[in-house]
Amino acid sequence: MGGLAERDAQIATVDRRTLGVWAGVMLVLGAAFVRAMCSYDPFPWWEADPFRFAPPISGLTPTSGLAMDGLVLLGAGLVLGCSRRGPGRIAACLIAIGLGVISFHAATNMETVTDGASIAASVAAMAAVWAASSVPGVRRVVLGAALGFGVMLAAGGAQEVLIEHPRTVESFQQTRESFYQAKGWDPAGPEAAMYEERLSHPNPTGPFGLTNVLATFAGASAVGLLGVALSGGWNRSSRLAMIAGAAASGWALLATGSKGGVGAAALAGLVVAVSANLRPAWIGRAALAASIGVVLAVFARGLLGDGVGELSLLFRSQYQIGTVSIWAEHPIVGTGPGLFQDAYTRLKPAGAPEDVTSAHSVFFDWVGVLGVGGLGFVAALILGWTRRSEPGSEERPTMSRRTLGRLVGGVVAAAVVAAALTQRETMGLEGALALLAGAVGWGTVGIWIAAGTGRVGNAALAASAVALIHGQLDVTAVWSVSAPLWGVLIGLGVGCLRTEPTGRSRWMVIGTLGCVLSVLVWRGSALMRWERGLNDAADWASRIAAVRLEAVFEGEPGLARAAETLGEWLGTGVPARPDAVEAALEEASLIAHDDAADGLREALRARPTHSGTRAALGRVLAAMAMRDQTRAPQKSARFWDEVVASAEAGTDQAPWDAGTWSWLGRAYELRSRAAVDPAAWLGRAAEAWTEADRLTPQDPGSAARLAGVLWELGREAEARDWAGEALQRDDALVLDPRRRLSARDRASMERLARGIP
Length: 757
Description:
This protein is an all-alpha fold. Helix content is 74%, strand content 1%.
């Protein structure tokens, strides 16, 4: 302890450039952890029908998420601008190419902005920690914050598994029908089957919403903390604290049930332990070889086919094959961030049941969506890991140990406060206590590491290796909530590498970071207008949904209050009976549709390529048209015309999106029901569904829908052919029965295939 006090007393003078590096690192860490502590809603208020199901926003929205990614980019630019050393000329060129491709996509397609920003933030965070590692003390602070995070995940996971999950299941069972109505799902369909299966497993997902993503960070924390405990220079109490943190993180990892996460943690720990006595460069190469070995193992599993019972790696091999097809079609700039699913659905190998949004491998993800830019990112990462050398990481920091601990405490406080603020409307007492306990554990472990004097080099590499290896099996590297923090973890590994004098090369990265930031500011203003429109549209809808829940869950007192509220809104008495309240709710909903339509129109003007907004507006307008069909037929006709015109405009704005064509087909079908000549509209519907099917060539649902429309048109021979095609596709989905047609839809197709309506 005397040595620690002596070191604390020796505070070196910190020049302005070093302070700039520290400021940039803290900005990167703060934004990355805020992102990771807050859930994400990509379509706020309208992911489901807000007239029936309108939970408050309890996380970040696209605009606030974009702001966090922008702060990461800004912090990275500050680090690179102030650091005297960095990744080097070649790596800087490779990173700049990838950032340039992201800028291109964001400038030309609004739908690539949010996912592209997350990828850019991930790579920028990696580059920032890499460059900042030349400043003594930085890696220790980053490592402390990263490893302590596993304790937070363990506390939140325990609350989620033991308390929150049983309540969620109970609530779902009570509102199952209305929940599916709000989502627009068939209770017997594949979406409902997959949702109920996930609900049956009480695995923690944390703010990420995915068990595999949580497993990445829990595994990195468990392995890293164990590595710290086994490293030299730590006293008994410190080792016990690290072991306790490792145990908590290990529990969180095991609770996820992620086989890939457990395997990645074990493999990373083994690789670092075995290679610890090798030259520094070979330790990095061993970890990189392990991650490439995982990719090859996935490919080999694909060669075995479906004769082996294990399917998760088989599916991932299908993602790899589909990604290669995507890259072959878009070799220069890729398909664009956020557009992977559209391309994969069209190009996936025969028999692949899943329509995924990611290749579940960071190397394939980057190349598939960014083309040459993704290759640049992959090459930069490989270059870093193969050139590893220890840059005097155990030097005395230029700041006092106490100051380093305070920096970690500041990061923890910022992330916890952000999480508390975003969840304030939904967090109960148990959630608040779990957040507090997790914050204490996170801060304690993180500050202990940052302010300690023991060695941390191999622990940093081990934690980073977990992220790198598991990044070849899951979506952590490209998932909006987790991507920046994944980049921080990877930076811990490459931050152990040999850095070079930055010279002019840093300005290539800084310049492209500036380009990305400029585009984000431009697009962010449109996203703000889009969100404002969605919020305005959901105002009355969410009030009606709240009254509906009050009537359902709060017994007779709730029913009485709901009747009173509805009576005030409608200007008439509403009896406190379930049937009367439900009828009044429907009447109030139809009246409120006018306000909802105005808000959605505003949102669509701000973001015309978003198919979800267009479909939401269409559903609202269709409800208004049906409402006025008898009492105001001319007004109803205008609404129907707007439904069709909006859907047609959607296919012009986003012709690559099968969802826009599906909605156009649906809009034509709805229009046919109110038309004098329905056949003309059904003919258009058949054309739209044909195009939707071209973009989803293995989906039995689109073929079944087309068969039904053709039968209504009297084109029975074509209908029988398409019904047979739907059945054939359905039979091919043996690897994942959840995605097959519902029993009702399959029976309908079997009848149509035989010529029976």
